[in-house]
Amino acid sequence: MDGNVHTYKTQLVAKGFSQTPGVDYDETFSPVAKIKSIRVMLAIAAFHDYEIWQMDVKTAFLNGKLAEDVYMSHPKGFDSAEYPNRMCKLDKFIYGLKQAPRRWNLCFDEKVKEFGFSRSEDESCVYVKASGSIEVKSWLGKCFAMKDLGEAAYILGIRILRDRSKRLIGLSHSTYLDKVLNRFNMQNSKKEELPIQSNARLSSIMYAMTCTRPDVAFALSMVSGYQGNPGKAHWTAVNNILKYLRRTKDWVLTLGGSDDLRVLGYSDASFQTDRDNFRSQSGWVFTLNGGAISWKSSKQETVADSTCESEHIAASEAAEEAIWLKNFIGDLGVVPAIKEPIEIFCDIESAVALAKEPRDHGRSRHIDRKYHFIRHRIEEGLLVAKRVSSDENPADPLTKGLGRVKHLQHARRIGLKDDISFSS
């Protein structure tokens, strides 16, 4: 929900850490929805003005089928004076058991498929079925004890804002950022204009960046490599980011306002950014319906010996994400443009040329074959590489620190806005 306490519950939890593999549990994997998948679907919902409803399964784990023999000691206060050495044999899963999440997922998967849903091959927590009624809610209510939460307002601590008249959806992390600032006694700190200065070596913050704040991705990437042995400069950089987030905590990742529902990709690289090992920095971002749906800023795995090579590596990394987006969105069946090649924009002409065709010369013939992934996908007609100027490339701040004006311009290009009023 919104991160605040709404109800208090008494919960019986098993000591799963004492379980023995092969004896009282076997498989434990349970899929978790990717936050970028949620952003994709919200962008589509904003464009088509779809309903977004939220429901909760009460005591979800009790629905899983327990196959193993699992015993548990009595909770304090429930010991029997007549049978002091007896244990509880569980009939159903409870929280704490290692296999409980997996069995609940299998149970849910079975029930929704009975109702005609199909599971996405590229996102195990997304199910698709064309329906214009509330029968889904009724069906789930028959299968499980459900709580209807109404129109979605919060998801994973992220506030969902909506203006249906403008077909806009906004994702806000202001409540979460307030708590982070309070935790580090930064709520009254000076407000910074930038997450990282253009001449700084380092910088940093995590959950907010992953969900709604791509503008601090580069800063986080730079400072995270020093978590094991941080110095004073690194702490200063972290504080600088907290101050920046305080200034911009009301920014909203806005999805909507576009006339065309089409995925656009942008990639960039900063040559040999890391002065310790001379590795370059990759950055890419994909937008849909006017807002960012997926992004990354990371150090490249290998040392590039030219700007062209570093840009080619970044573009190839972006191409991998583009293929996943193409497959996942294609499964949803509501974005016709996804059948067309996805455009990936790069701001270096030589890198665009290298992605399109095998130019064999001394500066590129040594490049690892895996980084030619983008070229093969272009040949298959799945992607298109195009050039864009640095001033119009929103992936630019994912690879380097910029001045205030350019940083703000790029933030606006990927949907980060503070000047739009949403009707809750």
Overview of this protein structure:
With 424 residues, this protein is an alpha+beta fold. The chain has two domains: 112 residues, no CATH class; 250 residues, Ribonuclease H-like superfamily/Ribonuclease H (Nucleotidyltransferase, domain 5, 2-Layer Sandwich), CATH 3.30.420. A five-stranded antiparallel beta sheet has the order 7-8-9-10-16. Strands 13-12-11-14-15 form a five-stranded mixed beta sheet. Strand 7 and strand 8 form a beta hairpin. About 2% of the residues have low confidence.
In angstroms, what separates the terminal alpha carbons?
A: 15 Å
What integer value in Å does the Rg equal?
24 Å
State the order of secondary-structure elements, H for helix, E for strand.
HEEEHEEHEEEEHHHHEEEEHEHHEHE
Q: CATH top level of the largest domain?
A: Alpha Beta
Q: What fraction strand?
A: 15-25%
Which CATH-level-2 architecture of the largest domain? 2-Layer Sandwich
Protein name: Reverse transcriptase Ty1/copia-type domain-containing protein
InterPro entries: DNA/RNA_pol_sf (IPR043502), RVT_2 (IPR013103)
Domain Reverse transcriptase Ty1/copia-type: 6-133
